[in-house]
Amino acid sequence: MTALRIPGVRRPGRLLAEAAALLTAAVVAFPLYWMVLSAFKPAGEVQSTEPRPWTLSPSLDSFRRVFEQQDFGRYFLNSLLVATTVVLASAVVAFLAATAVTRFRFRFRTTILVMFLVAQMVPVEALTIPLFFLMRDAGLLNTLGSLVLPHLAFSLPFAIWMLRGFVRAVPEALEEQARIDGASHARFLWTILFPLVLPGLVATSVFSFISTWNDFLFAKSFLISDTSQSTLPMALLVFFKPDENDWGGIMAGSTVMTIPVLVFFVLVQRRLVSGLGGAVKD
Amino acid sequence: MTLTAPAPPPSASAGKTPGRRPRSRTGENRTGTSAWTPWLYLLPALAVLGALLVYPVYQLGLISFLEYTQAQVSGGEPTSFQGLGNYTALFTDPQFRQVLLATVVFAAACVAGTLAVGCALAVLLTRVRALPRLALMLAALGAWATPAVTGSTVWVFLFDADFGPVNKLLGLGDFSWTYGRYSAFALVLLEVVWCSFPFVMVTVYAGIRAVPAEVLEAAALDGASPWRIWRSVTAPLLRPILAVVTIQSVIWDFKVFTQIYVMTGGGGIAGQNLVLNVYAYQQAFASSQYSLGAAIGVVMLLILLAVTLVYLRILRRQGEEL
């Protein structure tokens, strides 16, 4: 990672830019800092009319309340299960589809690509109505499957769209070489192409993971009576009550919900940055 | 890469420069694959999308032409065909027109804000040394990673009239941000920009880094100002990337649901902060007007479809290949 050096930008300018960057970083990170801070504040300090940006007596009360009052641990596992299933399934399916549309020329190729683009436009929330009837007819209401399937469908078009760049970046000569060495196309696909595209898969899976992890509309609509199948966002909203929000509980729950995504992001951070560049660059 | 096979057959994509991206395969047997291989690879994706996207969209369209309320769902009354009745009802409803206008203005403001902040910070990232860059990058990734629900709750708390630090800092007393229509929209706008600018920033930054340094140096040697370099050199080279982030922002911001729903409590006081997505949901699931909700969904779909077509035309005109 070398900095792009633009001649003519002298030191004072750079220092100013660096100060601006650090200030922006602080502003951008502040909501997250406040969330974690409020989660650890004792109840009296959270609901105080004199909010202070520190606490001298951190406590785990809010977390305890969240995990006791609600079956939070279970919802956490449910959310994790749904998100992991969607990420793994969409990675494999999107990889195959992206390979088809980038490394083959066939009739209707462009049509299919446009379809993938258009599919991203579909307002998910509007489809809740027909999907509800579909899940009811398939007997999937009140199961985690009713969350996995729609999210798989909604994350696929974007994943395929993003992955094209990564698949295209693998030189065709490699494929030629594998064929000359006698490898079948399936073998080339899984033992050569798949590992090479893996960084891209990781970058795109961030999006599938987030959209699935965030969802509360489907959970709210499809998991009507069986609360043991509930997921995190729904559990979080229980703490929202008109005019008497338990802010400590909300912030603790939010922290618990945000941390897995943060960990995931930090792990894939490098690949995400290079990945996005690769995906949007031709 | 050398051209080892005859030029690829002309595909349906118009405006493509012939031979710009040579392909060594035409799908024949010499590569160990048959003409059916791509379809085999596409099969799982098409099956999932067909069952869970295309079919529901078809049903959505169907329901929007029917009278479909709680009575029809429980089977108490037969469904009846309404023709364009639901759409007529929508467009003569002043609230719908108001929500439509609010959605377009709000989405446009979100897109403009996100792009401006994202691009400005991407440029800033190229001007600083590794440490500030890492700090800004990590902060942005944190905002990006925050789930929409938790981001919304945290921002509402930050701007809370009684316990929030922002009012204290700005000396606003117990000013309620969610009470007024415009201040509530402004609050949601801030949250949306906060959680969506990182995608733009990271993508544009990756794009700027891919611009060859010699080009920029040559421009600087010719005496171009930084602004001139951006406008005449960097921006044109970045245009495909800017097109991608713009369209993604339009798609995401036009469909904002969670932020409005959580931050304004389901659409604000007397529905003053409703956007189309939330309005459709409220019509369908709160009022059991499934057919009206479906009709709103169809209107949204058509608007976004129009945006997509414009986007595709721009890409084609620039000679981009899909």
TrEMBL record, chain A:
Subcellular location: Cell membrane
Single GO biological process annotation from the record: transmembrane transport
Superkingdom of the organism of origin: Bacteria
Location (main, coarse): membrane
Gene3D superfamilies on file: MetI-like
Transmembrane segments: 15-36, 75-101, 113-135, 147-167, 188-210, 247-268
GO cellular component term of the entry, any: plasma membrane
UniProt signal peptide: none
Stored Pfam families: BPD_transp_1
Segments forming domain ABC transmembrane type-1: 76-268
UniProtKB keywords: Cell membrane, Membrane, Transmembrane, Transmembrane helix, Transport
Membrane disposition: Multi-pass membrane protein
Family assignment from sequence similarity: Belongs to the binding-protein-dependent transport system permease family.
Record-given protein name: Sugar ABC transporter permease
Originating organism: Streptomyces filamentosus (Streptomyces roseosporus)
UniProtKB/TrEMBL annotation, chain B:
Gene3D superfamilies the UniProt entry points to: MetI-like (1.10.3720.10)
Compartments in which it is found: Cell membrane
Keywords carried by this UniProt record: Cell membrane, Membrane, Sugar transport, Transmembrane, Transmembrane helix, Transport
The ABC transmembrane type-1 domain, residue ranges: 100-311
Membrane-related topology note: Multi-pass membrane protein
Pfam families for this protein: BPD_transp_1
Ranges that cross the membrane: 39-58, 99-124, 136-159, 179-206, 260-280, 292-314
Compositional bias annotation for Pro residues: 1-11
Biological process annotations from GO: transmembrane transport
Keyword Phosphoprotein: no
Record carries keyword Cell inner membrane: no
Region spans: Disordered: 1-31
GO CC annotations on file: plasma membrane
Family from the record: Belongs to the binding-protein-dependent transport system permease family.
Annotated protein name in UniProt: Sugar transporter
Originating species: Streptomyces filamentosus (Streptomyces roseosporus)
Lineage, highest ranks first: Bacteria, Bacillati, Actinomycetota, Actinomycetes, Kitasatosporales
